[in-house]
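FYI - complex with flavin-adenine dinucleotide, inputs then prediction.
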Amino acid sequence: MIESQLNCEVLVVGAGPVGMTAALLMADAGADVVLVERRNEPGDEPRAISLQDESLRTFDTLGVADALKAESLLDTGSRYFGRNERLLAEAKPVPSRSGHPAKSQFDQPILENLLFRRAVEHSTLRFLTSTEVTAVEQDDHGVSAQVSGADGDVRIAAQWLIGADGGRSFIRRAAGIELVGTTQPQRWIVIDLLGEKHGRGPFAEFHCDGIRPYVLVPGVKGRLRIEFMLFDGEDPDAMTTPGAIAELVRPFRQRLDPQDVRRASVYVAHQRIAESYRRGRIFLIGDAAHLMPPFAGQGLNAGIRDATNLSWKLLEALRGAASEQLLDSYQAERRGHAEKMIAVSQRIGRVVMSTGRVTTRLRDAAIRGISLLPPVHDYLANMRFIAPPDVSTGLALTPGVGKPGLPSYDLKAAVVGQPVGQPQVSDAAGRTGGLDSFVGPRWALVTLGSPASTDHPANGTAEEYWDALGAVRLQLLPAGSTAAACPGSQLVLTEQEPLLVPAGADGGLHILIRPDRYVAAVFDSQHELTVAEQLTEFIDPHARRTDNRRSGSAEPTTPGGHP
Ligand SMILES: Cc1cc2nc3c(=O)[nH]c(=O)nc-3n(C[C@H](O)[C@H](O)[C@H](O)COP(=O)(O)OP(=O)(O)OC[C@H]3O[C@@H](n4cnc5c(N)ncnc54)[C@H](O)[C@@H]3O)c2cc1C
């Protein structure tokens, strides 16, 4: 029997993939989290299929990336076909510096199963399934939610609440936050098939034939996703009968074994965004904050970025070290990118869904014409239309108005405001792994250069700040160097690329990496104190409450291991 009042630090509402990710990231870091979900099992709907490297990086932190990769088609691209199945544009699989394939084709229910099991088995996370939040209120000190479950009604008091309860978010409405935007008139049927024997390349195929647009996305182990646009007047119930499905997929499967239809459903896409991602002590993440058509494969990926971005900031708030500026940086960093992803999804949708002979002929001619221009070809081939996320609008310390100037260094894999690259490194003990596995999800101050150049006189005040912040301090040495025998503090690049000290940098160069792996600053030794002072506007580690569980100074994980 659950007691009628529960207290916790963070209440996460909704155990979709995004809510589970946020809850696990915070519970792993020692926060007292309650996760509430109205279903009693993981979701099993045919939804996300395209996964980006950044999401895999977060799943790696949670220890589920390897299992997910084993069920995914890694390193994929996209192909767009026009009338008469003529190839209009191709985005080849692009290299990634993140340590994970840039784009992979996966299965959302497999991901949800992995996260659900992890949440159920978690030693401290309290996961209440078959439980629905029915009322929420907040004041300056905390949030209180009424939940209704198998054991009756319970009140949960928390310091912070995260609404991860999907597109129809109750939390969003209860917080009085508007969702603005529109709904697409077109409906689509999505069918997940098993038993595919036809070998296909590692591409998501968009067939924009102008008759009935469709999308094919192969997976591993005989999985194949097929989506068809429905016409006005086609009834969703009639189109999801076994007979109608067999008819639709006949061009790809002459004889369809009903057992091979894993899932089928009709969906309508929305292009909507919450006017605000925060109201007081309530934050929105995932589909509760933004909804977008699936054509760019961005909805879930945006949600995982939200969870990764918000969770470490709330951990700082629980420690008493976060300023309002840090908490507000969540919206400042995430909402603009979601708007861009909604716009790009709409644009791709317009290309894919155009019908009619004249329109599609003009479309095909226009795309073929502009693709001849090398910059446009490059833009399409390298998927540049998916703008990389950039947190420069939030906690990124760069020269700018009102800020003392920091030198700006152009490091290929360490651009301020963007995720840091993840080179393979080895330590003095001969252990080899990705940089993340030596750092963990916490602040890191990585110094680049030769052992001699990084041996600069320590700046006492700044040193004290990094220590209070719990930042792991590492020296990254060029390939071929020998790491000193103090495990963890010196790492050697196993190949020279991608973190090189640029010409002109005087002595060692420091990269300040946030717990979500975004680059907060790149600076030389003279500016170490300036950076520490600027960061204090966001986080004052000296204000931290004594709390051994979340001191931020946990040992780095062993390569390939997880906390
Ligand atoms: C056909 C299709 C294809 C897609 N393809 C892609 C793709 O390729 N790539 C991509 O990135 N995204 C894609 N998406 C989008 C992606 O599926 C969603 O963005 C993702 O599922 C959102 O996850 P979430 O955790 O935010 O929300 P949800 O998955 O909707 O989870 C919300 C959870 O909250 C629970 N809940 C709701 N209200 C309450 C309450 N009051 N109390 C307790 N629990 C509650 C629900 O039961 C649910 O479990 C696709 C979507 C569709 C439909």
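Residues 5-341 form a domain with the FAD/NAD(P)-binding domain fold (CATH 3.50.50.60). DSSP finds 14 helices and 27 strands in the chain.
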